[in-house]
Amino acid sequence: MIELLIVVAIIGILAAIAVPNFLNARVRALVARTYADMKAVTHGFELYRLDHGDWVPDYDGIGMGQGNSEVRTYRALTTPVAYLSSIPLDVWISKEDFVRLFNKSEKYYEYYGYNSGGQERLDICARYGIGYVIRSLGPDRAAQWGGDFLNIGLRNRYYAYDQTNGLLSSGDIIATNRGVPE
Q1: pLDDT tens, position by position, 28-73
Q2: HEC sequence for 46-113
Q3: What tens digit of pLDDT does each residue of 116-127 get?
Q4: Is 81 left (phi over 0), alpha (psi -120 to 50) or beta?
Q5: pTM of the predicted protein model
Q6: Are 89 and 108 in contact (CB under 8 A)?
Q7: Distance of CA 24 to the CA centre of its chain
Q8: Which end of the chain has the least Cβ crowding within 10 Å, N or C?
Q9: Do the Cβ atoms of 155 and 169 come closer than 8 Å?
Protein backbone atom coordinates (compact mmCIF):
# COMPACT_ATOMS: atom_id res chain seq x y z
CA MET A 1 0.00 0.00 0.00
CA ILE A 2 2.82 2.41 0.86
CA GLU A 3 4.57 1.61 -2.41
CA LEU A 4 1.37 2.37 -4.30
CA LEU A 5 1.06 5.74 -2.54
CA ILE A 6 4.67 6.55 -3.38
CA VAL A 7 4.06 5.72 -7.06
CA VAL A 8 0.93 7.89 -7.12
CA ALA A 9 2.82 10.76 -5.47
CA ILE A 10 5.66 10.50 -8.01
CA ILE A 11 3.18 10.51 -10.91
CA GLY A 12 1.46 13.55 -9.39
CA ILE A 13 4.77 15.43 -9.10
CA LEU A 14 5.70 14.59 -12.70
CA ALA A 15 2.28 15.72 -13.91
CA ALA A 16 2.61 19.00 -11.98
CA ILE A 17 5.89 19.65 -13.76
CA ALA A 18 4.82 18.53 -17.26
CA VAL A 19 1.33 20.03 -17.61
CA PRO A 20 2.38 23.75 -17.45
CA ASN A 21 5.07 23.10 -20.05
CA PHE A 22 2.53 21.57 -22.42
CA LEU A 23 0.09 24.42 -21.86
CA ASN A 24 2.78 27.02 -22.64
CA ALA A 25 3.93 25.29 -25.82
CA ARG A 26 1.54 27.39 -27.94
CA VAL A 27 2.87 30.65 -26.50
CA ARG A 28 6.48 29.57 -27.08
CA ALA A 29 5.61 28.60 -30.66
CA LEU A 30 4.00 31.99 -31.34
CA VAL A 31 7.02 33.81 -29.86
CA ALA A 32 9.32 31.77 -32.12
CA ARG A 33 7.08 32.55 -35.10
CA THR A 34 7.18 36.28 -34.31
CA TYR A 35 10.98 36.27 -34.13
CA ALA A 36 11.20 34.37 -37.42
CA ASP A 37 8.70 36.69 -39.14
CA MET A 38 10.54 39.77 -37.90
CA LYS A 39 13.85 38.40 -39.14
CA ALA A 40 12.29 37.82 -42.56
CA VAL A 41 10.85 41.35 -42.65
CA THR A 42 14.15 42.92 -41.56
CA HIS A 43 15.90 40.92 -44.27
CA GLY A 44 13.40 42.31 -46.81
CA PHE A 45 14.10 45.83 -45.56
CA GLU A 46 17.85 45.24 -45.97
CA LEU A 47 17.37 44.07 -49.55
CA TYR A 48 15.18 47.10 -50.28
CA ARG A 49 17.88 49.38 -48.88
CA LEU A 50 20.54 47.78 -51.07
CA ASP A 51 18.46 48.53 -54.17
CA HIS A 52 17.18 52.01 -53.22
CA GLY A 53 19.91 53.44 -51.00
CA ASP A 54 17.52 54.19 -48.13
CA TRP A 55 15.06 52.42 -45.86
CA VAL A 56 11.44 51.88 -46.83
CA PRO A 57 9.55 55.14 -46.24
CA ASP A 58 7.23 55.24 -43.25
CA TYR A 59 4.12 56.51 -44.96
CA ASP A 60 1.91 56.99 -41.93
CA GLY A 61 3.57 55.78 -38.78
CA ILE A 62 2.73 52.10 -38.75
CA GLY A 63 3.23 50.97 -42.29
CA MET A 64 -0.21 51.25 -43.81
CA GLY A 65 -2.83 53.70 -44.91
CA GLN A 66 -6.10 54.48 -43.18
CA GLY A 67 -9.24 52.51 -43.90
CA ASN A 68 -9.05 49.88 -46.62
CA SER A 69 -6.19 47.43 -46.86
CA GLU A 70 -3.76 49.86 -48.46
CA VAL A 71 -0.36 48.80 -47.20
CA ARG A 72 2.01 51.32 -48.67
CA THR A 73 5.07 50.64 -46.53
CA TYR A 74 4.90 46.87 -46.62
CA ARG A 75 3.72 46.84 -50.23
CA ALA A 76 7.16 48.23 -51.12
CA LEU A 77 8.56 44.87 -50.03
CA THR A 78 6.32 42.85 -52.35
CA THR A 79 5.87 44.99 -55.49
CA PRO A 80 7.27 45.61 -58.00
CA VAL A 81 10.26 43.63 -56.68
CA ALA A 82 9.42 40.76 -54.32
CA TYR A 83 11.77 41.17 -51.37
CA LEU A 84 9.18 39.15 -49.43
CA SER A 85 6.69 36.72 -50.94
CA SER A 86 4.02 37.75 -48.41
CA ILE A 87 3.72 40.15 -45.51
CA PRO A 88 3.50 38.38 -42.14
CA LEU A 89 0.76 39.38 -39.73
CA ASP A 90 1.15 40.06 -36.01
CA VAL A 91 -0.19 36.98 -34.20
CA TRP A 92 -0.56 38.77 -30.87
CA ILE A 93 -3.48 41.05 -31.70
CA SER A 94 -6.85 40.24 -33.20
CA LYS A 95 -7.92 42.02 -36.36
CA GLU A 96 -10.86 43.58 -34.49
CA ASP A 97 -8.57 45.01 -31.78
CA PHE A 98 -6.19 46.32 -34.44
CA VAL A 99 -9.02 48.11 -36.22
CA ARG A 100 -10.32 49.50 -32.91
CA LEU A 101 -6.92 50.63 -31.55
CA PHE A 102 -5.21 51.86 -34.71
CA ASN A 103 -8.10 52.35 -37.19
CA LYS A 104 -6.23 50.09 -39.60
CA SER A 105 -7.64 47.26 -41.66
CA GLU A 106 -4.87 44.65 -41.30
CA LYS A 107 -2.75 43.66 -38.34
CA TYR A 108 0.75 44.00 -39.72
CA TYR A 109 3.71 44.69 -37.48
CA GLU A 110 3.84 48.35 -36.57
CA TYR A 111 6.54 50.14 -38.56
CA TYR A 112 8.30 53.31 -37.47
CA GLY A 113 10.79 54.84 -39.89
CA TYR A 114 13.63 57.08 -38.82
CA ASN A 115 12.27 59.82 -41.07
CA SER A 116 8.69 59.83 -39.78
CA GLY A 117 9.39 61.89 -36.67
CA GLY A 118 10.75 65.31 -36.08
CA GLN A 119 14.32 66.58 -36.04
CA GLU A 120 14.94 65.01 -32.62
CA ARG A 121 14.19 61.53 -33.99
CA LEU A 122 16.37 62.14 -37.03
CA ASP A 123 19.26 63.18 -34.78
CA ILE A 124 18.88 60.18 -32.47
CA CYS A 125 18.60 57.75 -35.38
CA ALA A 126 21.66 59.25 -37.09
CA ARG A 127 23.66 59.08 -33.85
CA TYR A 128 22.82 55.42 -33.16
CA GLY A 129 22.40 54.10 -36.70
CA ILE A 130 18.69 53.31 -36.44
CA GLY A 131 16.86 53.07 -39.76
CA TYR A 132 13.51 51.77 -38.57
CA VAL A 133 11.73 49.91 -35.78
CA ILE A 134 9.06 47.25 -36.18
CA ARG A 135 7.03 46.14 -33.21
CA SER A 136 4.76 43.32 -32.16
CA LEU A 137 2.71 43.65 -28.99
CA GLY A 138 4.02 40.31 -27.70
CA PRO A 139 2.35 37.77 -25.41
CA ASP A 140 1.00 40.35 -22.96
CA ARG A 141 -0.87 41.99 -25.87
CA ALA A 142 -0.21 45.48 -24.48
CA ALA A 143 1.92 48.23 -25.98
CA GLN A 144 5.02 48.93 -23.87
CA TRP A 145 7.27 50.81 -26.30
CA GLY A 146 5.96 54.23 -27.10
CA GLY A 147 8.24 55.39 -29.88
CA ASP A 148 11.25 56.04 -27.63
CA PHE A 149 14.07 55.83 -30.19
CA LEU A 150 16.64 57.06 -27.68
CA ASN A 151 16.28 53.97 -25.49
CA ILE A 152 16.51 51.77 -28.57
CA GLY A 153 19.73 53.57 -29.46
CA LEU A 154 21.06 53.11 -25.94
CA ARG A 155 19.95 49.46 -26.06
CA ASN A 156 17.85 49.85 -22.91
CA ARG A 157 15.40 46.97 -22.92
CA TYR A 158 12.85 47.98 -20.29
CA TYR A 159 10.15 47.90 -23.00
CA ALA A 160 11.25 44.63 -24.66
CA TYR A 161 9.77 41.20 -24.10
CA ASP A 162 12.20 38.85 -22.39
CA GLN A 163 11.56 35.11 -22.46
CA THR A 164 13.54 34.62 -19.27
CA ASN A 165 10.94 36.65 -17.35
CA GLY A 166 8.24 34.10 -18.12
CA LEU A 167 6.18 33.53 -21.22
CA LEU A 168 3.60 36.18 -20.40
CA SER A 169 6.03 38.82 -19.18
CA SER A 170 5.35 42.37 -20.18
CA GLY A 171 7.14 43.93 -23.11
CA ASP A 172 6.96 44.20 -26.87
CA ILE A 173 8.90 42.21 -29.41
CA ILE A 174 11.02 44.80 -31.21
CA ALA A 175 13.22 44.58 -34.30
CA THR A 176 15.39 47.25 -35.89
CA ASN A 177 17.91 47.37 -38.69
CA ARG A 178 20.39 46.48 -35.93
CA GLY A 179 18.69 43.12 -35.42
CA VAL A 180 15.97 41.29 -33.52
CA PRO A 181 16.87 41.11 -29.83
CA GLU A 182 16.33 37.66 -28.37
Answers
A1: 889 999 999 999 999 999 999 999 999 988 776 554 445 443 467 7
A2: HHHHHHHCCCCCCCCCCCCCCCCCCCHHHHCCCCCCCCCCCCCECCCCCHHHHHHHHCCCCCECEEEE
A3: 778 888 999 999
A4: beta
A5: 0.79
A6: yes
A7: 19
A8: N
A9: no
